[in-house]
Design goal:
alpha/beta, 294 residues, six-stranded mixed β-sheet
Length: 294
């Protein structure tokens, strides 16, 4: 792979793109309330803006069926208070968040009881990377971009290909993906995203002090991280999801042409239509017999 093109960054200016998990099925079963979680996240975002007047924060809401930008600190309408009593960061973000949740609920389909559906993480990562690429083209000097995924929903194996494409795109663009996972078990997708892109994966032991964890681990800019001892993942789950049943597997079959992964042996790749092993030999011998018969 060719090295990523060098970019000129301003060391003390950060562009933080946050993906916020709003999955109602996850929060309805989670011990903590979404409002408590959101209040600590808003305090963290406000602290990022207070650390530097040129810092920029973008928030992307991640629902079950859609994702959308709900806040951009560089927007003109977010530079002033909208109602005189509440800062624009809170009023505009909360207003856009309410609208997004209402629209996302209209797209919600039935799911199995007791099974929490995954959030559209692949879409949020793609939107975040698109915004960062637009910032790269805005001028010769860029703020140092990074993505922070605040996720609680379980991984969606059907999103494996899209998420891995986003991860490799972030790696090539030198954009670290930080992950703060609050679910019951670890997220293999986010572990891989942070490991491959050079970001930080952290699972807070308790949510009562979430603001302290966010400010201590994820508030530091990329230049300052070289001088700090930040949490490191003790183990990364590198398991992949098969293309046929969308299940996480330990071992499987890989197409040598397009690298598609399957949990069972197939005679033909469903992605690129390549013929595998013995099936290819049988097909070749059948062709030879036909030629001899002619």
């Amino acid at each position: 792979m060719a090295p990523a093109p060098s970019k000129n960054y301003t060391d003390d200016v950060s562009l933080l793109v946050v993906t916020l998990d709003t999955n109602p099925f996850f929060w309805s079963d989670f011990p903590s309330h979404f409002s408590d979680f959101l209040s600590q996240v808003l305090a963290f975002l406000n602290s990022i803006l207070l650390l530097g007047q040129l810092n920029q924060v973008v928030v992307i809401a991640t629902g079950c069926n859609s994702c959308s930008y709900i806040y951009d600190s560089s927007s003109n309408k977010n530079h002033a208070s909208t109602n005189g009593t509440m800062p624009a960061l809170y009023s505009n973000l909360l207003h856009n968040l309410d609208e997004f949740i209402a629209k996302d609920e209209q797209l919600t389909t039935a799911h199995e009881p007791g099974n929490v559906p995954s959030s559209l993480l692949s879409g949020s990562l793609s939107k975040a990377l698109c915004y960062i690429q637009r910032a790269f083209r805005s001028g010769p000097m860029h703020p140092q971009p990074r993505i922070l995924c605040l996720q609680g929903s379980p991984d969606g194996p059907e999103q494996y290909v899209a998420i891995m494409n986003a991860i490799f795109s972030a790696q090539r663009s030198s954009v670290p993906v930080d992950s703060c996972y609050i679910g019951s078990s670890n997220s293999a997708f986010l572990q891989q995203a942070s490991y491959i892109t050079g970001g930080i994966y952290y699972k807070p032991p308790q949510l009562d002090g979430l603001f302290q964890y966010l400010s201590a681990v994820f508030a530091t800019d990329l230049h300052s991280r070289a001088f700090l001892r930040l949490p490191k993942s003790l183990g990364v789950d590198f398991r992949a999801s098969c293309f046929c049943h969308k299940k996480t597997i330990d071992t499987g079959y890989v197409c040598s042409v397009c690298l598609s992964i399957f949990c069972e042996h197939h005679d033909k790749c469903s992605t690129c239509s390549s013929v595998f092993g013995q099936a290819q030999s049988v097909a070749a011998s059948t062709d030879n017999r036909k030629r001899k018969a002619e």
